[in-house]
């Protein structure tokens, strides 16, 4: 076991890969029996301090439909200067530059420790990054002010040569020209009329007729010229843009009582996409949408402007009562696909108390790798810091963002690629290694990830027949031995990765299927897994045992079932979308936190300790710190709360109490420092209304139904009819051992 | 020039003595009553003395004829006489004989008339028939009358009579030109006409005709003149009757006139008299001179002087008149009869005579009026006045009966109109037979003569232009007659002074003519009558007309929360015509007769006359025009309106930038914005402003005061226009001054390097409209546009100018918009109260037809500056812009014309939109806009009550106040056609005709339109001839006094650029003029069709009076002269090639003619009184017009002269327009065809 733990850890550290199974079954049949598919979580940009960048181009396999990259697993004939592709067995000569190759003089890509390698590709001129702000001006004055300040601040965080642009929208959409002196100029579009990219470019005056007689001229020069009017290097327009932002006014159109402001989010995005499409196709670009409410007009509208018609709820959706849902979703999907095709990503920063239509718009971010940030107001630290963190830099002083990635998976003949789940779109690259059995985004061996950051993680699913991997900038190689011994396979099970991988599959399904169906599917998978790997006597639940490598898995599933990723109760459609969005892209650790929040307990009785996510952990003399990824809750037990209210912490003799109070705050700070997006920070106490964040997460081992049965004073009863983990397990055991199943 | 003309005149006179004489006389007479007078006087005396028919006969013949002619002309038709007579008389020394014949005829006629009149009549019979009657009318004092008449005639001729008589015009013309002739003619008429006259004349005429009048005057004339005068005088004495008759004929009519006129003319005349008596004194006055001439030597001088006089209307006329009076005086005094006449006259006469002569025209007209209702007569006397009227009436029948007509003329004099008619009747006409002659009038006039004179007449084929009615004469007469007294509107059915006359109006219950001018102030009672006469019944309404300061602003009435008091049924507003009954508790509507309760708060007791006690405290009860404060019920959506907004939309395409337009506009707006219209109580205008620039896309500007710099918002999506911003687009100038200035500074820079040549137009209007919609207010768009909108957008146009279609049946399509888009857009604009003013700066075809649709439907204006260049056209454009921005206007207006039962407003012309048949919707209504309303009968009208109309305009003022402006007008109704014709306003009729025709070109080929116009005019005149004029030779053209200018003006309309374009005229220009005319008021249309031509070479640099205008004919221009011509749109300074050095130096500061720069647009500022005065005149003319006129200097024989010549509307023009004379002949033919 320890061997596998180490192996897994090493794999993750080195390659950013976690496989569900670290030993693979040898046949399709066996693979099917494993229940959890052979799959992995892949974090392409995982920060690896020791990874040396390689300043040359990768060597590719010469077979046209293979083009695999030279890697440590290839067989190399140093004398003949020939290497054999380990995927297609094609024998390839080394290129001339490899003439000096020998056993003692190997290039990095042949060293086993460099199973992941990063090539720096020198082709083509470096293109500047592009940031296009798309700003909603139908905001409250305060919100708008805060947003303006954040935007102004962000200018200083951008690389000086980055191109920046500004589009504002309300009832109309304005594309601001940034290079004007003395007068600020903008192009205005009505918010109700959809325009093709060509029309947009025409209207923005970007379709200058090519000078006659010079057809051969490189297009780049021409392209750059007009573009500059809307997208300018930050260092040039810093002042202008700051002023411009400063002068932004709330949308002046009157909003009569009982109406929502007219917000043309759909058109604004369409124009942003069209603008970039026409001017900087296939360049790294971020469209950053800041919106304070739902789109209320034009294509992509989510809700009408009548306040008496509330925005769709899950209830409406289930009843098929959401008028605009399908149309809007389709619209944004089309937009997202266009953006993705050009390698542009779309961020959504939605700050409003009510829903803002994230459900419909989520695909814009999901498909392009953009962020979604949801908050109550732009005037909160949650938004401000999150936004700031978008521009954070790594230890190399490089932005933690990457653009325009193409992810290609190569497998050897024994494996086929079923699909990927994550912030990517299919590139529809068919090949021999593409499985017909789709899981997630399938049917291709290449995906486009328009934007990614070090934590962006995709789940790759395979069908056992073969295996491998590559990346444009970095190439990661994964392999495993094929084992037919079931015990060994079982011990190679990575229950954390599997939980996340299964969860992704479930959430992916949940996007398109009814909630209960997904839960049933998930339950069945769990039961089958337990049946397969549990040790029990038929029809004797009490005899059921799971091995160590599987022991936590059911608990993950229990919490997953209760998580907002699969449960929509108590969540708005927007919230669900938001949660799912993040779940689908975070790395394993974060994903696990999302599935099963972490709970720390602080008391006078010892150092802080992690405790069970259980109602029994809620005690009067404890302070709890819960991290659900999205929320960070500090909960003061009843007694502690009373003490605090009495102000003991102020008294010198109760210094220790003060320290106790401070301890969770410090820890929370630490988490806040690194988390993206900023979690909602909740400081509450026993009986506080916000204690619901905690109570809804813990396992309801004590409820009003069984409170007295447990008879202990410990813990707090949770007022819920949800089943507790204990009950869940009982049922699971029963079903697992049942011979009827 | 005049002289030249005069000579012509003279010659004509000579030939067709009868006609001519008539004419000339009339004309002359009118102008030169002196001549006639002199003769008359002589005649009178003669008459009195005896009735030597024989001697007279010739004379009398002449006289008569002349008289007759005069009479005729006076009454009606001098025109025929003019035509034929003019020439004939002069030609025919012989004519005299014929004249005698005619005389006899006349005499007969006269006799008939005479009988009633008096013994004298018999004597006069021929000539005097009419006269006689006139005399009769006067009473026993035939002499007086006669003399009077004579004078009157002359006067009349000159004045209204002239008109009435014949072409009145001729008379006047004659007067002017005649003057010269007068001397000769005088002799002629008086003396010449007399026995000696003929021969003398002939020679004179001949001589005269050949050489300029002056020539004739000097050489031939003097002698002849001398001879003539003496002769005439002698003749008079010798043959009292004839003269008398002649005089009578002439005089009779004249007298009353003269008398009447006297008052007005009095001052002048008196002096004349004084001078006259002395005869020698003549020198002092032009008149005197004339008088002298008659006497003897004078003629030449007088002639000359007269001419000059003609040039300088006042002088000349007066002079002639004066001269006349003297003559008359002279004549009078001498004859015993004179005594009779004299006495009465003296009192009045002195004045009168002069008046007659000088005043003659005016007096005549007055008399006419008097006759109608004016007691001008009073001065002269109760005698004239009273008798005349009765006489007239009586006469009329007689006239109608037969010669009676002659009398009517007289009577006409007596009774102004009838008199006129009578005049028209031309006793001689009976001879009508002359038709044989080619020239209708000339030939026809004195048939007998004709026979005799025919050859002669034929020889003078040409009609003397001076012998036909002269617009200038009419204008000047009206000025003299009506300019001094305020026009009091209290009396129903009065014809106001002409638009060319400066007068003051006192509102006493009817709207000022500045607000409403009708074509007829006596409406026919039945539709049959209306149809028969074909006189259009229309009102030309200028609801927001600017009043001169001394007439004050309209009173604003507030009836409180309930709103204005209105009739329950027809909703007419409270006005002076409402009858309060039942002790004031209820009132009866004068429009629909419905009885409505008076609301308690409005109750007031009635006095013993049934009028409310507070009648004079409430404007709505005693004034013709006033305003109500509207309540919320009168507002859109029942919400008080916002202050309106002005939006400036500036084309910034390549052409506009290059021509300097953009820079000019932006620079000007900076200062102009300080002068937006405002209420007098407001310190600052409440109008908000907004700015847009555009080429293929639109740029809106946010100029909110809080911004550090303006923001430009580009809207490229022109297919569906919208306004990109709300707050900050429309701003108050005061608050956003800095930002606006910054913007206006930058606009020219931003687009300085533009390469965009395509423009849009539809979206531009839409943008403004949407902006106003968004701001929920009414307003006005100022669009500065350069080229055909060919860019892809709604309202895109294509170049369709196709000169080949001109003159074909398809020509009408050129006047129709090529797309319906703008029509629909205009509807939307109107609904929002969005008025659109378009300033066009095209370098080529822009399709004014289509573009102007929006402006024309929204009460906006179109301005066009072809080939605009900042340096040369800047002033014109900027002045127009300033005026356009600053002029008072109302927004979102609705106009409704209510009429009393019996007539109904059926058709409307102008810049507006109508969604139903009654409400005229005007998105904007400025102080220059006119709406023409045509009325039709739907029942009978009552003579007793007359007809009422109430024009109510609901509008939003520039401060956002909702108001109702009400104009009330009552007119009389008549059962006699004669009354109708006597109370017409020719200028208004022409204005209506033009508007109607200009609209009809949309649906019919222009040729048809012209034919219809000619036809209708012919019918009008024929109806008059048939029903109101005394029977006379069909060859005689008899025109109603009030309409004697109809032919000349109509001809101007017919040959206007829209109806008969010259080859080089673009479709755009025609379309531009077409829409322009549709909303012109009468003053504008008058000068537009008959441009004003001012001689400047003999300028009185001290005074502030404008020189008297001249007739628009090239032959009147002197090579040594300097003339200013304006038609409200163009301003030319014509420089003769022989212009004197000092003039050249004074005006242009150059030494030679060739050094004058033809491209100058303003005269150099030179420090000499002449230059100063000319520039002042130019400025004052510009100030009168609603559009600034760029000065164009035209050098004689320069290429520009072709353009200039198109404005000489009495001449033939290159595109086939007939000359005045030719057209008159044509018109006469038409009339005769109708009559037969």
TrEMBL record, chain A:
Chain coiled-coil ranges:
none
Q: Name one GO biological process term.
A: intracellular protein transport
Identify the InterPro entries for this entry: ADF-H/Gelsolin-like_dom_sf, Beta-sandwich_Sec23_24, Gelsolin-like_dom, Gelsolin-like_dom_sf, Sec23, Sec23/24_helical_dom, Sec23/24_helical_dom_sf, Sec23/24_trunk_dom
**Ranges where the Zinc finger Sec23/Sec24-type domain occurs:** 58-98
Which Gene3D superfamilies does the record cross-reference, listed alphabetically? Answer: Sec23/Sec24 helical domain (1.20.120.730), Severin (3.40.20.10), von Willebrand factor, type A domain (3.40.50.410), Zn-finger domain of Sec23/24 (2.30.30.380)
Q: Which residues form the Sec23/Sec24 beta-sandwich domain?
A: 402-471
Q: How does the UniProt record describe the way this protein sits in the membrane?
A: Peripheral membrane protein
Q: Provide the primary localization.
A: membrane
Q: Keywords in alphabetical order, please.
A: Cytoplasm, Cytoplasmic vesicle, Endoplasmic reticulum, ER-Golgi transport, Membrane, Metal-binding, Protein transport, Transport, Zinc
Q: Where is the Sec23/Sec24 trunk domain?
A: 126-391
Q: Does Disulfide bond show up as a keyword for this record?
A: no
Q: Does the keyword Metal-binding apply?
A: yes
- In this protein, which residues make up the domain named Sec23/Sec24 helical? 494-592
Family label? Belongs to the SEC23/SEC24 family. SEC23 subfamily.
Q: Please give the name of this protein.
A: Protein transport protein SEC23
Native source species: Scleropages formosus
TrEMBL record, chain B:
Q: Read off the Pfam families from this record.
A: Gelsolin, Sec23_BS, Sec23_helical, Sec23_trunk, zf-Sec23_Sec24
Q: Which domain of life is it from?
A: Eukaryota
Q: Which residues form the Gelsolin-like domain?
A: 1113-1178
Give the Gene3D superfamilies listed for this entry: beta-sandwich domain of Sec23/24 (2.60.40.1670), Sec23/Sec24 helical domain (1.20.120.730), Severin (3.40.20.10), von Willebrand factor, type A domain (3.40.50.410), Zn-finger domain of Sec23/24 (2.30.30.380)
Q: Where does the UniProt annotation place the signal sequence?
A: none
Domain Sec23/Sec24 helical span(s) in chain numbering: 986-1085
The Sec23/Sec24 trunk domain covers: 641-885
Residue ranges of the Sec23/Sec24 beta-sandwich domain?
Answer: 890-973
- Biased amino acid composition, Pro residues: 116-125, 375-390
- Which Gene Ontology terms cover its molecular function? SNARE binding; zinc ion binding
Subcellular localization(s) per the UniProt record? Cytoplasm, Cytosol; Cytoplasmic vesicle, COPII-coated vesicle membrane; Endoplasmic reticulum membrane
Report membrane topology.
Answer: Peripheral membrane protein
Biased-composition ranges, Polar residues, are 33-48, 73-82, 103-114, 446-457
Mind listing the GO biological process terms from this record?
COPII-coated vesicle cargo loading; intracellular protein transport
- For the region Disordered, what residue ranges are annotated? 1-59, 73-470
What does UniProt give as GO cellular component?
COPII vesicle coat; cytosol; endoplasmic reticulum exit site; endoplasmic reticulum membrane
Alphabetical list of InterPro entries matching this protein: ADF-H/Gelsolin-like_dom_sf, Beta-sandwich_Sec23_24, Gelsolin-like_dom, Gelsolin-like_dom_sf, Sec23/24_helical_dom, Sec23/24_helical_dom_sf, Sec23/24_trunk_dom, SEC23_SEC24_subfamily
List the keywords (alphabetical). Cytoplasmic vesicle, Protein transport, Transport
Q: Where is the composition biased (Low complexity)?
A: 19-31, 88-102, 202-218, 269-284, 324-343
Zinc finger Sec23/Sec24-type domain residues are 564-602
Q: Per its UniProt record, what PANTHER family does this chain match?
A: PROTEIN TRANSPORT PROTEIN SEC24C, SEC24-RELATED PROTEIN
Q: Belongs to which family?
A: Belongs to the SEC23/SEC24 family. SEC24 subfamily.
Record protein name field: SEC24 homolog C, COPII coat complex component
Q: Per the UniProt entry, what species is this protein from, by scientific name?
A: Scleropages formosus (Asian bonytongue)
């Amino acid at each position: 076991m320890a061997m596998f733990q180490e192996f897994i850890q090493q794999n993750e550290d080195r390659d950013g890969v976690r496989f569900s199974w670290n030993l693979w079954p040898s046949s399709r049949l066996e693979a099917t029996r494993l229940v959890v598919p052979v799959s992995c979580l892949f974090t392409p940009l995982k920060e690896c301090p020791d990874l040396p960048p390689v300043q040359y181009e990768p060597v590719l396999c010469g077979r046209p439909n293979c083009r695999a990259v030279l890697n440590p697993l290839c067989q190399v004939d140093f004398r003949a200067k020939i290497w054999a592709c380990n995927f297609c067995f094609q024998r390839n000569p080394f290129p001339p530059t490899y003439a000096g190759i020998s056993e003692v003089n190997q290039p990095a890509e042949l060293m086993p420790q460099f199973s992941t390698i990063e090539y720096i590709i020198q082709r083509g001129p470096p293109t500047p990054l592009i940031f296009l702000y798309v700003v909603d001006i139908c905001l409250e004055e305060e919100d708008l002010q805060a947003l303006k300040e954040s935007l102004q601040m962000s200018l200083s965080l951008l690389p000086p040569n980055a191109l920046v642009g500004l589009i504002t929208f309300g009832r109309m959409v304005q594309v601001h020209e940034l290079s004007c002196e003395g007068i600020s100029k903008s192009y205005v579009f009505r918010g109700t009329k959809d325009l093709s990219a060509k029309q947009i470019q025409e209207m923005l005056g970007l379709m200058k007729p090519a000078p006659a007689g010079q057809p051969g001229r490189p297009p780049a020069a021409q392209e750059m010229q007009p573009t500059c009017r809307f997208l300018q290097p930050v260092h040039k327009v810093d002042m202008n843009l700051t002023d411009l932002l400063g002068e932004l006014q709330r949308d002046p159109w009157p909003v009569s009582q009982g109406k929502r402001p007219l917000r043309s989010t759909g058109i604004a995005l369409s124009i942003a996409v069209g603008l970039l499409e026409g001017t900087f196709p296939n360049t790294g670009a971020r469209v950053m949408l800041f919106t304070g409410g739902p789109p209320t007009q034009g294509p992509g509208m989510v809700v009408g402007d009548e306040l008496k018609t509330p925005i769709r709820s899950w209830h409406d959706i289930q009843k098929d009562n959401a008028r605009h849902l399908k149309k809007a979703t389709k619209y944004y999907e089309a937009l997202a696909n266009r953006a993705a095709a050009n390698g542009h990503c779309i961020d959504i920063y939605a700050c409003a108390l009510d829903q803002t239509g994230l459900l419909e718009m989520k695909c814009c971010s999901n498909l392009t790798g953009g962020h979604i940030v949801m908050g109550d107001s732009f005037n909160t630290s949650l938004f401000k810091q999150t936004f700031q963190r978008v521009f954070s830099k790594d230890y190399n002083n490089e932005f933690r963002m990457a653009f325009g990635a193409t992810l290609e998976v190569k497998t050897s003949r024994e494996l086929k690629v079923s699909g990927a789940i994550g912030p990517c779109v299919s590139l529809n690259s068919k090949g021999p290694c593409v499985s017909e059995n789709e899981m997630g985004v399938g049917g291709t061996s290449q995906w486009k990830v328009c934007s990614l950051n070090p934590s962006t993680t995709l789940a790759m699913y395979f069908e056992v027949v073969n295996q491998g991997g590559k990346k444009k900038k970095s190439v990661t190689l994964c392999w495993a031995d094929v084992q037919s011994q079931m015990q060994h396979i079982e011990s190679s099970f990575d229950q954390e990765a599997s939980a996340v991988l299964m969860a992704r599959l479930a959430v992916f399904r949940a996007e398109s299927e009814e909630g209960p169906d997904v839960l049933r599917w998930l339950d069945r998978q769990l039961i089958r897994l337990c049946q397969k790997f549990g040790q029990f006597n038929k029809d004797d639940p009490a005899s059921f045992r799971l091995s160590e490598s599987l022991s936590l898995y059911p608990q993950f599933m229990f919490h997953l079932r209760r998580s907002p990723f699969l449960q929509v109760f108590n969540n708005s459609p927007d919230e669900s979308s938001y949660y799912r969005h993040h779940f689908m892209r975070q790395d394993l650790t974060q994903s696990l936190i999302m599935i099963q929040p972490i709970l720390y307990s602080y008391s006078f009785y010892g150092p802080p300790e992690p405790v069970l996510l259980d109602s029994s952990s809620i005690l009067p003399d404890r302070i709890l710190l819960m991290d659900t990824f999205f929320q960070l809750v500090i909960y003061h037990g009843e007694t502690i709360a009373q003490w605090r209210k009495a102000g003991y912490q102020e008294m010198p003799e109760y210094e220790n109490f003060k320290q106790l109070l401070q301890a969770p705050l410090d820890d929370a700070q630490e988490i806040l420092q690194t988390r993206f997006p900023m979690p909602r920070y909740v400081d509450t106490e026993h009986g506080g209304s916000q204690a619901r964040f905690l109570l809804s997460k813990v396992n309801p081992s004590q409820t009003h139904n069984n409170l007295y049965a447990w008879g202990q004073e410990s813990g707090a009863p949770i007022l819920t009819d949800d089943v507790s983990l204990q009950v869940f397990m009982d049922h699971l055991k029963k079903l697992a051992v049942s011979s009827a199943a | 020039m005049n002289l030249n003309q005069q000579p012509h005149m003279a010659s004509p006179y000579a030939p067709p003595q009868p006609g001519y004489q008539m004419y000339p006389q009339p004309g002359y007479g009118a102008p030169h009553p002196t001549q006639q007078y002199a003769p008359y006087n002589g005649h009178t005396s003669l008459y009195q003395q005896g009735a030597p028919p024989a001697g007279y006969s010739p004379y009398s013949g002449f006289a008569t004829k002349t008289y007759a002619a005069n009479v005729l002309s006076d009454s009606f038709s001098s025109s025929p006489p003019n035509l034929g007579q003019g020439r004939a008389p002069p030609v025919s020394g012989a004519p005299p004989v014929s004249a005698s014949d005619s005389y006899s005829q006349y005499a007969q006629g006269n006799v008939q008339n005479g009988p009633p009149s008096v013994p004298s009549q018999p004597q006069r019979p021929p000539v005097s028939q009419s006269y006689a009657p006139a005399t009769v009318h006067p009473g026993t004092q035939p002499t007086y009358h006669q003399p009077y008449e004579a004078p009157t005639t002359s006067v009349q001729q000159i004045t209204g009579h002239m008109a009435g008589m014949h072409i009145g015009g001729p008379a006047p013309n004659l007067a002017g030109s005649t003057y010269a002739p007068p001397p000769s003619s005088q002799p002629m008429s008086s003396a010449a006409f007399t026995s000696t006259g003929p021969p003398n004349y002939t020679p004179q005429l001949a001589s005269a005709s050949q050489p300029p009048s002056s020539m004739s005057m000097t050489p031939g004339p003097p002698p002849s003149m001398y001879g003539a005068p003496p002769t005439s005088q002698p003749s008079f004495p010798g043959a009292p009757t004839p003269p008398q008759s002649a005089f009578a004929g002439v005089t009779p009519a004249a007298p009353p006139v003269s008398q009447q006129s006297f008052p007005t003319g009095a001052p002048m005349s008196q002096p004349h008299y004084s001078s006259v008596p002395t005869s020698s004194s003549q020198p002092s006055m032009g008149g005197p001179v004339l008088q002298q001439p008659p006497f003897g030597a004078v003629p030449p001088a007088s002639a000359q002087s007269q001419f000059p006089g003609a040039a300088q209307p006042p002088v000349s006329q007066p002079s002639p008149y004066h001269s006349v009076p003297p003559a008359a005086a002279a004549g009078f005094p001498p004859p015993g009869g004179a005594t009779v006449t004299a006495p009465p006259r003296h009192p009045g006469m002195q004045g009168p005579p002069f008046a007659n002569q000088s005043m003659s025209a005016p007096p005549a007209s007055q008399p006419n009026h008097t006759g109608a209702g004016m007691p001008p007569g009073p001065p002269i006397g109760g005698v004239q006045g009273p008798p005349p009227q009765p006489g007239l009436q009586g006469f009329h029948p007689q006239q109608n009966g037969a010669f009676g007509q002659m009398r009517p003329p007289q009577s006409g004099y007596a009774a102004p109109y009838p008199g006129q008619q009578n005049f028209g009747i031309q006793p001689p006409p009976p001879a009508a037979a002359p038709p044989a002659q080619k020239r209708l009038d000339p030939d026809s006039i004195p048939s007998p003569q004709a026979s005799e004179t025919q050859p002669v007449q034929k020889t003078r084929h040409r009609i003397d232009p001076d012998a036909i009615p002269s617009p200038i004469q009419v204008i000047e007469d009206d000025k003299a007659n009506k300019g001094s007294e305020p026009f009091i509107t209290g009396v129903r059915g009065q014809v106001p002074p002409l638009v060319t006359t400066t007068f003051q109006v006192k509102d006493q219950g009817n709207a000022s003519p500045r607000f409403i001018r009708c074509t007829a102030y006596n409406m026919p009672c039945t539709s049959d009558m209306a149809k028969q006469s074909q006189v259009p019944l229309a009102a030309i309404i200028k609801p927001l007309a600017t009043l001169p300061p001394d007439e004050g602003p309209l009173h604003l009435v507030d009836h409180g929360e309930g709103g204005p008091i209105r009739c329950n049924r027809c909703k007419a507003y409270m006005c002076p015509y409402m009858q309060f009954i039942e002790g004031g508790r209820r009132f009866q509507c004068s429009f629909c007769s419905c009885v409505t309760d008076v609301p308690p708060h409005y109750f007031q007791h009635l006095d013993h006359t049934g009028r409310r006690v507070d009648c004079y405290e409430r404007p709505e009860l005693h004034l013709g025009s006033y305003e109500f404060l509207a309540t919320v019920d009168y507002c859109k959506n029942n919400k008080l309106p916002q202050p309106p907004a002005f939006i400036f939309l500036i084309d910034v395409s390549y052409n506009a930038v290059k021509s300097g337009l953009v820079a000019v506009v932006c620079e000007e707006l900076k200062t102009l914005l300080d002068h937006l219209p405002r209420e007098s109580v407001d310190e600052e205008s409440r109008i908000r402003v907004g700015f847009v620039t555009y080429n293929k896309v639109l740029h809106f500007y946010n100029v909110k005061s809080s911004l550090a710099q303006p923001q430009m918002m580009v809207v490229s999506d022109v297919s569906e226009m919208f306004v990109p911003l709300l707050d900050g687009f429309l701003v108050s100038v005061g608050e956003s001054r800095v930002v606006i200035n910054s913007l206006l500074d930058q606009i020219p820079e931003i687009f300085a390097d533009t390469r965009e040549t395509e423009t849009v137009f539809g979206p531009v209007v839409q943008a403004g409209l949407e902006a106003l919609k968004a701001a929920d207010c009414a307003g006005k768009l100022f669009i500065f546009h350069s080229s055909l909108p060919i860019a892809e957008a709604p309202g895109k146009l294509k170049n369709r100018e196709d000169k080949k279609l001109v003159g074909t049946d398809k020509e009408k399509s050129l006047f129709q918009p090529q797309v319906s888009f703008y029509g629909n857009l205009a509807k939307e604009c109107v609904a929002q109260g969005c008025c659109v003013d378009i300033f066009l700066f095209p370098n080529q075809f822009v399709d004014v037809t289509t573009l102007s649709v929006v402006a024309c439907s929204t009460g906006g204006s179109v301005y066009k500056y072809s080939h605009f260049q900042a340096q040369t056209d800047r002033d014109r454009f900027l002045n127009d812009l300033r005026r356009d921005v600053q002029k008072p206007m109302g927004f979102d207006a609705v106009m409704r014309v209510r009429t009393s039962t019996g007539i109904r407003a059926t058709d409307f012309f102008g810049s507006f939109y109508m969604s139903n048949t009654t409400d005229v919707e005007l998105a904007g209504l400025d102080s220059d806009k006119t709406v023409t309303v045509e009325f039709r009968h739907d029942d009978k009208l009552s003579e007793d009550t007359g007809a009422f109309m109430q024009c109510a305009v609901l509008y939003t003022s520039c401060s956002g106040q909702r108001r109702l402006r009400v104009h009330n007008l009552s007119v009389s109704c008549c059962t006699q056609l004669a009354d109708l014709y006597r109370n017409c306003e020719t200028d208004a009729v022409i204005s209506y005709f033009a508007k109607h025709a200009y609209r009809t070109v949309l649906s019919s080929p222009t040729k048809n339109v012209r034919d219809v116009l000619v036809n209708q005019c012919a019918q009008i005149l024929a109806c008059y001839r048939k029903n109101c004029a005394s029977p006379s030779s069909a060859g005689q053209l008899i025109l109603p006094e009030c309409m004697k200018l109809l032919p000349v003006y109509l001809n101007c309309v017919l040959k206007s650029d829209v109806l008969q374009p010259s080859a080089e005229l673009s479709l755009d220009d025609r379309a531009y003029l077409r829409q322009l005319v549709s909303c012109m008021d009468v003053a504008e249309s008058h000068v537009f069709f008959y441009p004003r031509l001012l001689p400047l070479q003999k300028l009185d640099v001290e005074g502030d009076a404008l020189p008297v205008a001249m007739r628009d004919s090239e032959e009147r221009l002197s090579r040594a002269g300097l003339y200013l011509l304006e038609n409200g749109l163009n301003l030319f300074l014509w420089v003769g090639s022989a212009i004197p050095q000092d003039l050249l130096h004074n005006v242009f500061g150059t030494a030679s003619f060739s050094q004058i720069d033809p491209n100058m647009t303003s005269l150099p500022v030179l420090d000499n009184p002449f230059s100063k005065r000319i520039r002042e005149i130019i400025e004052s003319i510009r100030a009168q017009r609603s559009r600034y006129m760029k000065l164009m200097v035209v050098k004689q024989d320069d290429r520009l002269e072709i353009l200039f010549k198109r404005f000489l509307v009495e001449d033939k023009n290159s595109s086939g327009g007939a000359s005045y004379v030719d057209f008159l002949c044509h018109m006469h033919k038409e009339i005769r065809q109708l009559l037969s």
